[in-house]
Amino acid sequence: MLEKIAVFFDVDDTLLDNYSAFKCTIENFFPEEFSDEVFLKQLYRDFRGNSEKIYQKFQEGQLNTKQNYNRWYSVLEGLNQKDYLEIIALDEYYHFCQSKQRLSTEMVMLLNVLKKSKIFCGILTNGFTQQQQKKLDQLGMDLYIEPKWQFISEDLGDTKPNVSCFKKVASQLPAEIAQIYYLGDSYKNDIAPAHLARWNPIWLNRFADEGELLVPQATTNKEVVELLLSKLLTIK
Q1: Whole-number Å distance between alpha carbons of 55 and 78
Q2: Which pTM does this prediction carry?
Q3: Rounded to 5 degrees, what angle do the CA atoms 157, 164, 111 make?
Q4: 136 in Cβ contact with 150 (< 8 Å)
Q5: Concatenated DSSP letters for 25-84?
Q6: Residue 12: half-sphere exposure toward Cβ, Cα within 13 Å
Q7: Which pLDDT tens digit goes with each residue over 68-99?
Q8: For the residues of 94-159, what is the DSSP string, one character each?
Q9: Quick check: 43 and 33 in contact, CB under 8 A?
Q10: Do the Cβ atoms of 218 and 204 come closer than 8 Å?
């Protein structure tokens, strides 16, 4: 039955640890604020939410630039910082820290197990092709997943949370695939639409976000790997 199963992954905050890149940035620019983990997580949730809103506005034609500097305004306000001239420097340093991220030990183990078990795997990520492809390359995803099954929303011509985005990907998969598991971090962009598309979402809920659906949840890479493998082991 495993030959009828596919496992798809989101990238940002799922395979790629953007929160660590955010913390790296705050530590560099505002070291006095770095020690409060609860506060940092709330700042990051706002930052992540604003990033998603800005991307959505670009998709809807309300913005004419791919630059995402505005997402830092809420961060600076939260830190009671008045010097907005630092926004470009903040964003550039964030991307520098992000470029140093690699797959976690747990995710490497999971991807190796899936590959050795010959379980079909893929990627479905929102974002601009050039930026997301760079992330996929730095994570070495070609070692585990064929490039043609790495779907980026700009290339796909559709974007999460549209259910049509998931259905468009599913329509391109081999005919024998009967179940698709999807590992993602965002309830709005990943979990809810995957469920509506009749995929099997698994929520990597690192920041204790709330959602209405009763779906399998984990808070760490270790937990989510154990959860996914337990699901696969019960398939007959």
Answers
A1: 22
A2: 0.93
A3: 80
A4: yes
A5: HHHHH-GGGTT-HHHHHHHHHHHHHHHHHHHHHHHTTS------GGGGHHHHHHTT---G
A6: 24
A7: 778 898 899 888 887 766 888 999 999 999 99
A8: HHHHHHT----HHHHHHHHHHHHTT-EEEEEE-S-HHHHHHHHHHHTGGGTS-GGGEEEHHHHT--
A9: no
A10: yes
